[in-house]
Amino acid sequence: MDIYLLEAILNGVMLGGLLALLALGLNLIFGVIDVVWICYVELVMGGMYAIYWLHAVYAWPFLLACVVAIALVALFGLILHRLIIEPILGSAPINQLLATGGMLFFLQSFATLLFGTDFRNVGIRLPIIELGEIDLSFARLLAFVTALVGALGLYLFLARTYLGTAIRAIAQDREIMGLMGVDQRRIYLITSAIGGGLAGLAACLLVLQYDVHPFIGLTFGPITFMICVLGGLGNMFGGVVAAFLMSQIISIVGFYFSVELSYVLAFVLFIVLIVLRPRGILAR
Amino acid sequence: MTEARIAAAVGLAALVALPFLLQTDSYYLHIVIQVLLLGLIYTAWGFMGRFGLVSLGHGAFMGVGAYTSSLLWNLYGLTPWLGIPAGMALTAVLALIIGYPCFHLKIVGHYFALVTLALGQVVALLIIAARDVTGGSLGMTPRAVGTSWVALQFQNRLQFYFIALALWLAVLGVRAWVSRGMRRAALEAIGEDETAAEAAGIDVLREKLRVFVISAVITAAGGSIFAQYIMYLNPETVAGVGISLQIVFAAIAGGMYSALGPTVGALLTLSLTEFLRVLFGTNFIGAANTIYGILLILFIIFMPRGILGVAERLLERRPRAQTAPAE
């Protein structure tokens, strides 16, 4: 087997972990609150800028900067829900998607206004791991492992804690849970904060591999939405499967042809699959 | 009704007289032409948007229209008079390929929005990938030949103004036709509850497909003419996610339920952009879109019917005032 192809496949697996983490937060929000945060990757961008400023400019330790960034983005998620989603929860679902679309415009252009269109690098160079003849970026491996740990943590939280059970129950039947004494509003706020926190975690991992710029959301946004829909909106396990499927397509086609073509193929495949299986690849 | 007719006649006369009041190389005329061309695209988006069929991929149709006519002209010297219909035909096929399975399998709401978002990405990325002919991200320019009706290029803005005006009026006419009588009732019923509409004997698939294809084809034509006027095409400005969202938001801000709403949206967004550009120069790139983003959020929360929608409602409350355009 071609050693470079193997490297492409491995890189695809690493990318898959990162995409899965991105999809996870979005899926949680959709599954519980029934809202699509179209500005989700812009929250990640905000987290990346926070880490950049704290670490590269104010010289905070990287891990501390990451923790603060996660807290900030979680807070932002909470505020986003409280100020924008809550007032229009009762209106047509598409309105909520469009309101977060306004937030996308705002975050993108506000970042341009504040920081300009420069590409900024946090300035951490992690070593390259050599596995025989295969070069593997340590940053990617770290991202992959952390993403998996994050996903596992979320799973345990949802499966094992009282709050997690309440969140899952709301996702299944929002009318009944209110009658059973679950404070729906509080659950929504907590879910939004967790979704924001996951975006912050993704920011910590992305900032090690990519430069920050105001339009980074356009690079990762569309593919993240495709993955969520493909896995079945709200279906977290499906999202993880779809993330690895898409990342392999991107890596392998990108290896044989070109990066643009690999994304084109990924999106075309998305359209075909969604038409064949409108409720996601894992739908029964 | 007669008062509405008089208002429409006066408005039309003012629009016809406008370019003669301004100088033909005027900056304002340039803005008005763009408002009309973008306004007709936004109006076309509203055809389906107001029945709950939200497309986040109209940039794809604009891009297919603009690139088809411009490439045919640059590569084969084919006149835009044939190139634009070719782009429209291609767009119709594309809309059918996407629309038929989506509507057949009842892909609605978020899912439809995200499928069309993917479509916009596919078209933008294909344009970038085919950089040998399209110039990729750097964009391309239609081959300039000075003033020529064959090439649909004019040194003078006057011709473009009247072309844009005629097209804009035609699209308003199509809007009236699409939303006439039973058709409109059928589409409204579909927007409210598809299953119930189906049970009431409405051919949901056909109605939705029809309005989707009409909307897409007009958007393609608008994209072509816009490229002819600006004489520059770029995958970011005529295809892709950015322009697709811009279409959606301008239409909503102006009011997609009103005939003139999307055009008001075009006027509002373009004036805001230009005003801030003049005010700040290029020091504050992003200022316009920052304000734009906040306004959109506020619009969706407080005025989901848009500016014109609210204005019309206010006018209706006053018993004697019937000057609002008849819906």
Provide structural commentary.
- The complex is a heterodimer of chains A (284) and B (327).
- By secondary structure, chain A is mainly α.
- Chain A has one domain: ABC transporter involved in vitamin B12 uptake, BtuC.
- Chain A is 76% helix and 3% strand.
- A two-stranded antiparallel ribbon of chain A has the order 1-2.
- In chain A, a hairpin with a 2-residue loop joins β1 and β2.
- The model of chain A has no long low-confidence stretch (mean pLDDT 86).
- Helix content of chain B is 75%, strand content 0%.
- With 327 residues, chain B is mainly α.
- Chains A and B meet through α4, α9 and α11 of A and α4, α5, α12 and α14 of B.
List key phrases describing it.
heterodimer, A: 284 residues, mainly alpha, ABC transporter involved in vitamin B12 uptake, BtuC, two-stranded antiparallel ribbon, 11 helices, 2 strands, 3% strand, B: 327 residues, 15 helices, disordered C terminus
